[in-house]
Design a protein that fits this description.
By secondary structure, this protein is an all-alpha fold. It has five helices and two strands; from the N terminus they run H-E-E-H-H-H-H. Among the domains are: about 35 residues, no CATH class; about 40 residues. The termini are far apart.
Length: about 140
Amino acid sequence: MSKFGREDIKTFIRNFKEASWSEEDGGFKLLNECGCEESPVGLEDNLEPYDHDYNELAGLYGPMQMQLSEQAPCPDSYNSAADLIVQVPEEIVELLKPLMEQLNIGCPASLAKAMGDVLTVSQENGITPIFHTGDTLL
């Protein structure tokens, strides 16, 4: 059992207030999200003008890939997907954009995380199948 006591709660509240203060707004921001509401890039925009060096993504993500893949239902599939996504993240975002537009979601990472979380629970409970790729059958 966790030993999360009264002092821990008070510390959390103090830190939350400090972390949630917005000088720009002159008050508290109760939801501290990714900033998609204020983003200068809209869902209708092309990502080409959003000029970033995607080559650095592999180095930023690489140190955490092993730990994250161990939490996936299928670490090998996770690693195969991650190895591709770090090379072409803008293409993955373009694939997600129609669904983001339909759901009015501006954060592709939150959409992908929700999809992964829900599908993991669904697969673990036999609600949706796990598919073979055709070349692994014995």
